[in-house]
Amino acid sequence: MHPAPSPSLLAFIILWLFSLAPSLADKPNIVLILADDMGWSDLGCYGSEIPTPTLDSLARQGMMATRCYTASRCSPSRASIMTGCEPHKVDVGLLDDDNGRPGYRGRLNPDIPTLPELLKKAGYRTYLSGKWHLGKVPGTYPWNRGFDRYRGLLGGAADYYKPMPDRPFGEDGKLLQPDDLPDDFYMTEDITKTALSYIEDAAKSKKPFFLYVAYTAPHTPLQAPREEIEKMLPAYRGKSPYAIAVNRLEKQKKLGIVPPTAKLGMGNKFNAAGYEKSTAERKDYVARCMAIYAAQISIMDRGIDRILASLDRHRLSGNTIVMFLSDNGATAEMPQNNRNKKTVLPIGPLGEVGCRDGYGPMWAAVSNTPYRQYKIETFDGGLSAPFIIRYPSKIRPGTRYHSPFLLQDIAPTCLTWAALPVPVHMDGKPLNAYWANPGKLPPANVWDYIPNTCPPRTIFWEHQRNRAALTQQFKLVAPNRGPWQVYDIRDRTEQKNLASRHQPLIEQLSAQYKKWAAENHAE
Questions:
Q1: Which of 42, 45, 381, 435 is the most buried (most CB within 10 A)?
Q2: What is the 3 state secondary structure string of 441-459?
Q3: Residue 14 confidence (pLDDT)
Q4: How far are the Cα atoms of 241, 408, 451, 520 from residue 85, in angstroms, in the given order?
Q5: Count of C-beta atoms within a 10 Å radius of residue 495
C-alpha cells in the first residue's frame, strides 16, 4: 500500500491542477480548411465570378494573403502542413506511393511528429474530416498519426458519389466497405457533416481542439448535383475562357491584389480564336465543365458556412483560429484522356457517377489567373494558393499580407499561438507577429518583396523534375531539370527571363540547391 500524500503535497497538486485549467482553456482552437487543386483566383475575394460569399466574408473578417506558396502537389503540401517541414525531409516528395528511397517513401516519416501529435500531448482534441493522402498502408493512417477522430478518403482523388472500391475510405481506426456509405453519399457533403459532428464532440469535451477539414473539392472528377450545375451555367454559357480570365484580372486590379499593369501570364494558352470556331456542342461542353467545377466550389463554400455557424452557435468563434487555403494551383490534367488508367468503376457521363473528366488547360489557366502554368510545375501558377486566416483576438479584420510564406510555416505559427514550443526540426517559421502586423502597401507595390514583414530566407522546391528557388530579389525556375530561368520577384507572371544577365546568381543558387537537395533527399 502506498503512503498517503502529505497535506502540503496535496495542496501543491491542487494548486498545480487549477493553474493548468485556465491555461488549457485559454489555448486557441484551430480549424484548418483545405481545398484540393483550387486555383489562386477561384474565390470571389481573389477575383472570381464563382459565388463564394462565406469565404469572401471570412477574408473581410480576417487577413488575406497574396503570396502563400505551396509544394505544387497535394501530398507534399499536406506533408508540410502536418509537420512544419519541407516535404522531402518527411519522405513525401511525390505522392503516397513508396518509391523505395529516402525522400519518396510515400508516407510521413514515423520519427518526425505531426502537428496533431504535438497538440494532442498538450491536451488538445484532434480531428480530421476528409482527404489524408499521406500514407495508405497500416501504420500510416490518420489514427496512427495523432488524430483522435477521423472519417474520410485515405488516398487521392476519388469519385464524389462512389469513392470505393477505387480508393480506401476509413473511419476511427477501421477501413470501410462500399456498403458502409449511405446511398445519397456525396463527398463534399459528407466531409462537412463529419466536421460538424466533430465540433459538437469538441464543444462537449471543453478542451481546445484542432479540426482539419480536408475537402476533395474541386479536384477531378467533375461531379456535382444537376441542380447545382444549372445554377452555374449562365456565368459560362457563351463565354470563352479567355473572356472570363480577362474579367478576373480586371477585378483583381480593382481589389488591389495585383498591380494595375499586370497582364495574363498564360494569355497564349487560351486560343480564343480556336474557341470561337468551335461547334455549339463543343462550346456547351466547355461551359458545362467550368459550371461543374464552380458548383463544386460553391457547395464547399456553403459547407464552410455551416462549420462557421456551428462555431458561433457553440460560442467558440472568439477563441478559434480559422484558416482556409488550397494545396496547390489548379491542374491541367484531364483524366478522361488517360485510357490506360485502371479503374473498377464504369466511366459515366459528365458530372455524374463514374465521370472522370477534368476541365482542361484553358479553364485551369483561368483558375490560376494571372500566374503561369499549373499544378506539379514550379512556376507561380503551380505553387500559389489563396490563404485566408481569421483570429479575432490577434488579427485585424480586412488586413492583407503580401510577403512570401510557405505551408510549413503554418504548424510553428499554430504552436506559437498555443504557447507551445516549436521543435527544432521544423523548417517553417512562426509568422504570428508578421500576420498580426502585416503593414500597408499601395496597390502598385503588392508584388514587391518586403524583407521587414517576413523572415528573410532562400526557399527551394523540387517536384517531379521541376525545380525552383526564391530569394529576396529573384525567382529561379528550372522546368523538367532544364536550365535555370531567372525572374525578378516582382514579375510574378514570370514573363521576362533574365538568365543571361545573372549567370553568377545562377551558379551560386545551383550550388545552394545541390546542398539543399542532398540534405533533404530531393532529386
A1: 381
A2: CCHHHCCCCCHHHCCCCCE
A3: 44
A4: 37, 5, 22, 10
A5: 12
DSSP string for residues in 25-60 = HHSPEEEEEEESS--TT-SGGGT-SS--HHHHHHHH
Helices 187-205 & 280-313 angle (0-180, nearest 10): 10
All residues at 6 or more sequence positions from 314 whose CB lies less than 8 Å from its CB, including other chains: 199, 200, 203
28-456 homologous superfamily: Alkaline Phosphatase, subunit A (3.40.720.10)
Burial, 226: exposed, middle or buried (Cβ in 10 Å; 0-12, 13-18, 19+)? exposed
Which of 384, 490, 405 minimizes the C-alpha distance to 454?
Answer: 405
Digit-coded pLDDT (tens) for 198-231: 999 999 999 999 999 999 999 999 999 999 999 9
**Is it the case that residue 453 has pLDDT exceeding 70?**
no
Contact call for residues 205 and 198 (beta carbons, < 8 A):
no
Q: Which residues are CB-neighbours of 497 under 8 A, at least 6 positions away?
A: 485, 486, 487
Within 10 Å of residue 251's Cβ, how many Cβ atoms? 19
- Burial string for 382-406 (b: 16+ CB within 10 Å, else e) reads bbbbbbbbbbbebbeeebbbbbbbb
**458-523 CATH, one of 3.30.1120.10, 1.10.3720.10, 1.10.1040.10, 3.30.70.20:** 3.30.1120.10
Q: How far is CA 57 from CA 64, 228, 253, in A?
A: 11, 22, 19
pLDDT of residue 11: 46
Conformation bin of residue 494: beta by default, left when phi > 0, alpha when psi is -120 to 50: left
> Mean pLDDT lowest for which of 118-127, 264-273, 490-499?
264-273
Grid cell 476541365 is found at 359
- What integer pLDDT is reported at residue 247 of this predicted model? 98
CA 81 centroid distance within chain: 9
Q: Is the pLDDT score of 13 beyond 80?
A: no
- Asked if 360 and 332 count as a contact pair (C-beta separation under 8 A), the reply is yes
Which is it for strands 149-153 and 125-130: parallel, antiparallel or unpaired?
parallel
Provide φ and ψ at 16, rounded to 5°: -65, -40
Give the single-character DSSP code of 379.
S
Measured CA to CA, the distance from residue 63 to residue 457 in angstroms comes to: 23
pLDDT confidence tier of residue 16, bands split at 50, 70 and 90: very low
**441 has pLDDT over 80:** no
Domain boundaries, the chain: 28-456, 458-523
pLDDT computed for residue 143 by the predictor: 98
Cα dist. 403→347, 447, 448 in Å?
A: 44, 8, 8
pLDDT band (50, 70, 90) for residue 25: confident
